Amino acid sequence: MLFTSATFVLFFAVFFLLYWYIFSGNFKLQNLLILAGSYVFYAWWDWRFLFLLIGSSLLNYLLGIGIAKSKNEKYRSFLIWIGLIQGLGSLAFFKYFNFFITSLISAFRIFNIHPDIYTLNIILPLGISFYTFKTLSYLLDIRHSKIKPTTDWVVFFSYVAFFPSLISGPIDRPKTLIPQLEKKRVFNYSQASDGMRQILWGLFKKIVIADNCAALTAPAFSHYNTLPASSLLFAIFLFTIQVYADFSGYSDMAIGLASLLGFRITRNFNFPFFSQSIPDFWRRWHISLTSWLTDYVFTPLNIYFRDYGKFGLILAILINFLLIGVWHGANWPFVVFGFLHGCFYIPSILRGAIYKKKKTDTSPLKIFINIAGTFVLLMFTFVIFRADNLSQAFDYYHRLFSPSIFYSFTITEKVNTIATLAAIAIMLAAEWLQRDKQHALQIDAIKKFPVRALIYFSLIFIILMFSPPKIADFIYFKF
To answer: How high is the pLDDT of residue 101?
Structure first.
């Protein structure tokens, strides 16, 4: 059930009316509705995997209570390990089993050994990476006395399955969402209207930009060996925009939907294309994932390796970014993508500048150079992110760095390309002007309603005019 589908619009309209008009006076009934609605939303994709979601929720609910009640440290650790094995074991099986098998077969073939091992036809459960990280943070936070477990199973199950963020995040921490589920919500017109604006902005990015970019990049990557380097360069520019518009568009819609229900969930993007360095980019991109890994992986590793000085810090960062790469999928290009971004931190570490607060550069030219340089670097790493395998990525680079880079690039759909570039320009301009806000359509400062209405209806018109014939799945559904 896509956020962009008519089915979801009908589902949410009915849900919204029940939530605010039938169950408004009782937050416990609202929580039951959230849980039921979330399970319907998830089962719409494949009802069989709903049992995995429920089973994971039940186990971690019981483990959380057991960890808090027990005074025996060994027993508490034992319960934590059960949760880790269940969560990470599920990920390992559904997401990485075939990757391990194919990598093992390839390793044996180096020594001319051909083992009789086969892969399995495994379907990746939708959203498993996201809700697994939510349950893991719940147990770890209880273990370290950062939170107390909830004894209300409806609250916990709703936290894990909260449908606005269930499929592609943001990855809410328990201390963010659970307290909101445990108290009464009151409809707030200002919050709801801002949520509607954020949904509209997310729809614009997803439908007008991401899906139209996809229509242009897919043929280019499929036939890259027949195109001039200039066309390949244009394709990776569009793909970089596409990934951002698609994923941040989903996050905007998720945050907006949660706002309509009276919740404030985690911000996931902070205008990352205005980053002035790679470290700055990762502070702004997929914030809920990077902050999760920083707290639960990088910080413990950094403490563990602290006796090794800068080498220990480099090792901690490289492991952290390898996990960021692997989190995206069981594919060597993702591993290399993560490792490469970890390597970008090494110069700052060697200079001793990694923890120093960089002075804000006020020179417009310097800011532009930093932003442009960071974006170009990102563009070239997204070749690896997009590639099906490393051989394809290296071949793409080989063809990219050739004399045909100076040729005029091929455009098959000129009207669509021009319209897409115009939409990208609108997005970047709006986000630059609103870079101190939560999202680009947070335009409360415009006091005249007719002006605001004109902006809203203009975006709606653009969405209706330039939406592709078929709305594509969100990119991060497969992660």
So the answer is: 72
Q: Cα-flanking dihedrals φ and ψ of residue 4, to 5°?
A: -90, 0
Sequence-ordered list of residues with C-beta below 8 angstroms from that of 310, at least 6 positions apart, any chain: 349, 350, 352
Whether 210 and 470 have beta carbons less than 8 Å apart is answered as no
398 catalytic? Reply is no
Q: Could you list the mean pLDDT of each consecutive 10-residue stretch along the chain, which spans 479 residues?
A: 89 96 92 97 91 96 95 94 94 79 66 65 83 96 94 97 93 96 94 96 95 90 87 93 95 97 96 95 95 94 92 95 89 92 92 66 87 95 92 92 71 76 96 94 88 93 86 71
pLDDT of residue 256: 97
DSSP states along 67-126: HHH---HHHHHHHHHHHHHHHHHHHIIIIIHHHHHHHHHHHHHHTT---------PPPPT
Residues with Cβ within 8 Å of residue 78, at least 6 apart in sequence: none
Spatial distance between the Cα atoms of 361 and 354, rounded to a whole number of angstroms: 17
Nearest to 284 by CA among 298, 268, 297, 296: 268
Residues 6+ apart with CB under 8 A from 421: none
User: Of the listed 328, 341, 398, 439, which one is catalytic?
Assistant: 328
All residues at 6 or more sequence positions from 454 whose CB lies less than 8 Å from its CB, including other chains: none
Tokens of 120: 């399995």
| pLDDT the model gives residue 413 | 62
CA-closest candidate to residue 316, choices 300, 296, 328, 292: 300
Strand locations in 370-441, DSSP E? none
Q: Which residues contact 363 (CB under 8 A, 6 or more apart)?
A: none
Q: Determine the longest span between alpha carbons in the chain, in angstroms.
A: 74
CA distance 165 to 287: 14
Cα radius of gyration rounded to whole Å, the chain: 23
Q: Are the C-beta atoms of residues 313 and 412 closer than 8 Å to each other? A: no
Query: Is 0.90 surpassed by the pTM of this model?
Result: yes
The phi, psi pair for 414, rounded to 5°, reads: -65, -45
The three-state secondary structure class of 185 is: coil
User: What residue ranges do the domains of the chain occupy?
Assistant: 6-186, 191-276+361-478
Take residue 227 and report the two structure tokens written for it: 């195109």
Cα separation, 82 vs 388, in Å, equals 35
Q: d(Cα 212, Cα 120) in Å, to the nearest integer?
A: 34
Where on the phi/psi map is residue 331: left (φ > 0), alpha (ψ -120 to 50), or beta? Answer: beta
Which pLDDT value is given to residue 99? 67
Rounded to whole angstroms, how far apart are CA atoms 60 and 157?
10
* pLDDT value at residue 175: 95
Phi, psi of 292 (to 5 degrees): -60, -50
